[in-house]
Amino acid sequence: MKARxxxxxxxxxxxxxxxxxxxLSRQTIFGGRRRTIRRKEDKENHIFLDNYGLLLFITLLxxxxxxxxxxxxxxxxxxxxxxxxxNPIMALYLEYSNITFFLEKFLFTSIxxxxxxxxxxxxxxxxxxxxxxxxxxxxVHYEISIINxxxx
Length: 152
Description:
The protein is mainly α. Helix content is 62%, strand content 4%. Strands 1-2 form a two-stranded antiparallel sheet. It starts with a strand and ends with a helix.
């Protein structure tokens, strides 16, 4: 039996909070209003939000830009300086063609960005996102330093 809530104007409605919003719903596609988890007891549950903030957008966009930069710098190093790709999976795609390498890199990163976006209120996702950005910053810095040293 569904729980009922009495409101001041004497209407009886179903308590919508007893059931979570489905993962794919009208609010997921067209946007809802929830940006944060408001109730203390809800913070202990796994909750998906309808809207995402500007900081999350900038963070995810940064991850995507870093991945694209890494792909470009890797292709430059491989083509111009006869470097090798250390990641064996990406090296396999690099053997096919530069476009295949770039598209696969973009696809993998895009899937990760989607997962980080949907699960952004989970601690493991936030930690993983921060680690991914730190790792990409290190890789891009390393590749730029190699290119700078080769120009000397």
